[in-house]
Amino acid sequence: MEKDSKYGTGYDPEAFEHDLQLISQLMRGKKELTVQLAQEIYYKIKSNNITFQSSKGEAFLERVLQNMTQAQKARIEDKLLAKKRRKQNVKRLFRINKIIASVVSVAVLLLCIVFLNWNLILDMRTNYQTKKLHDKITVSADLDTTPISDTSAQADEEQCEPPPQTGLEKQDEPVILSKFTALHEENEDFSGWLSIEGTKINYPVMSREGDNDYYLDKNFTGQPDKNGLLILDYRSNVLESGQNIIIYGHNMRTGVMFGTLKNYKDKDFCMEHQTIRFDSLYEEGTYRVVAAMLSAVAYEDEDVFRYYDAIDISTQERFTEFQQNIEANALYTTGETLEYGDSCLILSTCDYYTQDGRFVVIAKKIN
Length: 367
Known about the structure:
The chain is α+β, with helices and mostly antiparallel strands. Helices cover 41% and strands 15% of the residues. The chain has three domains: 13-68, no CATH class; 72-116; 176-365, Sortase (Sortase, Chain: A, Beta Barrel). The protein has helices spanning 13-27, 35-47, 55-66, 70-116, 118-144, 150-159, 181-186, 267-272, 316-329, and strands spanning 190-195, 202-206, 230-232, 245-248, 275-280, 286-296, 330-333, 344-350, 357-365. Helix 1 packs parallel to helix 3 (55-66), helix 2 (35-47) packs across helix 3 and helix 2 (35-47) runs parallel beside helix 4 (70-116).
């Protein structure tokens, strides 16, 4: 509602007082409005979006404009426009930096998650690859048990007549188990499969002539893999009697490879899981745990039992020495007795009870 007074229609004392205070602040106590002061006031009015609320303020603004040229006004407005653009650029840069910071934070978080779960990711890959290999064995075994029709069998019999004897025949070569032919064709280093119920141990076993280290950090296809694979000592002969078979594997904290072999430190666990299955490339084998022991890699001048060199026990002397050392160094024995002529499976993994420590499980072949 408009107010009536001696000042005329539309007079607002609050607005008038507001403009007087504002003018006083802009003039900074100066009584004369010079050209320079007018430019400073105009700059402040424009940069701070100052508006006057009364005729007194409007009259003051008109005086300010009259004390300036168009060129001066234009320079001030250009300066203000440049300042506005700088502020916009700063805000835009801030938004961009904020987005970058958010993206970097998310990336770092993801990297941390991946780093913390890297072993789990590698184990998942190992388990997936192992399952694929095991599935191939299963498929080969299923094909091997598929019945053949009598007609086909008769035809095969007719086509497979033995060749005439020449007296110069070679000794029979070992025949690879049909369930392993596919894997052996993929990698000739494949030497069998080890499995132990109640543990995670269910893996292919590899062996490379003259090299027990190759598969310490490689998978079945030869690609880098810190989990490695189980390794059959290349000196082991799975076809000869009186020979021990040694298999090495990493003691992984996540439990893969020989990570769960340490369960056999507990005799009660051993007695519940005393049977070990190792099918070599040429024959299936079942073993019973005889003992478990702690050992270490010895220096050359140390006079100690080196289980990793106890491969040939075909003579009575070597067998007796092996048997006595097992009994002397065992954490426990299971009651399974070793007899001359037995062949043993020796499973070896790292153990950190001492420098270069090893944990070893010894099992004898029962079939």
